[in-house]
Write a structure and sequence with these properties.
- The protein is an alpha/beta fold.
- It is built from 7 helices and 8 strands; from the N terminus they run H-H-E-H-E-H-E-E-H-H-E-H-E-E-E.
- The chain has helices at 12-15, 23-36, 65-78, 103-106, 138-164, 168-189, 204-211, and strands at 55-58, 88-98, 111-117, 128-132, 195-202, 216-221, 231-234, 296-299.
- A 6-stranded mixed beta sheet has the order 6-2-5-3-4-8.
- The longest helix is centred in the middle third of the chain and has 27 residues, at 138-164.
- The chain is elongated, with a radius of gyration of 19 Å.
Length: 301
């Protein structure tokens, strides 16, 4: 098919750009990039050509959500029937947050690799987590239970740090972090309506049928995606309609990276034997620079 204009907002090139491995490679072409007005173009890494290359799927931070939805729909329409027998990866965004028991019906007819979840606590930026999930809803329920346990430990760690802090502002930040983590733990343990996107694989016609279902906001095909451990997905949040941005956060900002426990990486396999690995940033409550909202972590089942 004819590729979208890479300069057009919402185009595939604008929405997904590989990241080079080395700073030296970036510096060597920086003057050319500035002169040409290009940002985020692909630079060949040195050595292993797969290491450090990242495929981004979704709406970029600050990007127009309406433009993204239109571009995804156009690309899905233009996707040729047939293709690979194993199908094409796609990022599915939902119009609302779904509980685990609603996912099987929402995603019938496609192979599910991952589910993207976030505890939508009012007025809080909460962690975005990618759960490896082929069996629905069992894998998502198990994944949420694992996240709840990690959040309990994170809350306890933040409370201990608050108790030991001499500075009042620092103590409030730790206390806020503990409250947010405890709220996330409670939500996940209760099987919250927290799933708002999924990474699936299917034939183009099945993806188009999925996009027509009620409650599906977008199906963004990613035929260039081969390895999920080299993917960063940034689906739009259901509550956002104009621009992809972190949700408004009330109260003291929790401290980034101040936790005794890092999030684990996924060990389960996705359909067609791709392995799900550490595709995103470390655990944290505040916004990651690589995501439209929150931090991204791939969590084991």
């Amino acid at each position: 098919m004819t590729s979208p204009d890479p300069g057009r907002p919402g185009s595939r090139a604008a929405r997904r750009r590989p990241r080079a491995l080395t700073v030296a490679a970036l510096l060597s072409v920086a003057a050319v990039l500035v002169a040409a007005g290009w940002v985020g173009r692909h630079d060949r890494p040195v050595g292993d050509r797969t290491v450090g290359e990242v495929t981004r799927v979704g709406v970029p931070p600050g990007g127009s959500i309406p433009d993204y939805l239109r571009a995804a729909a156009a690309e899905l329409t233009a996707l040729p029937s047939g293709g690979s027998p194993s199908g094409t990866y796609a990022l599915v965004s939902f119009a609302d947050y779904l509980a685990p028991d609603r996912l099987a019906d929402a995603l019938t007819g496609v192979a599910v690799a991952e589910v993207v979840v976030r505890a939508p606590l009012p007025g809080r930026q909460t962690e975005i987590v990618r759960l490896s999930a082929q069996r629905l809803p069992q894998d998502v329920v198990a994944g949420m239970a694992g996240v709840a346990g990690r959040k309990d430990r994170e809350a306890a760690d933040q409370r201990a740090r608050a108790a030991a802090a001499d500075d009042a502002e620092l103590r409030r930040a730790y206390e806020t972090g503990a409250l947010v983590a405890a709220g996330e733990a409670a939500a996940y343990r209760a099987g919250c309506a927290c799933a708002y996107a999924a990474v699936v694989r299917a034939a183009p016609d099945a993806l188009r049928a999925l996009a027509a279902r009620p409650g599906v906001r977008a199906v963004d095909p990613a035929p260039e995606l081969r390895r999920l451990d080299r993917a960063v997905v940034t689906p739009p949040l259901p509550e956002q309609r104009d621009v992809a941005r972190p949700p408004a956060d009330a109260g003291p900002t929790p401290l980034v990276g101040e936790t005794s426990e890092a999030a684990p990486t996924a060990t389960g396999s996705s359909p067609n034997v791709d392995r799900v690995g550490p595709a995103a940033a470390p655990s944290g409550v505040a916004t990651s620079p690589d995501a439209s909202v929150g931090s991204q972590t791939v969590v084991e089942k």
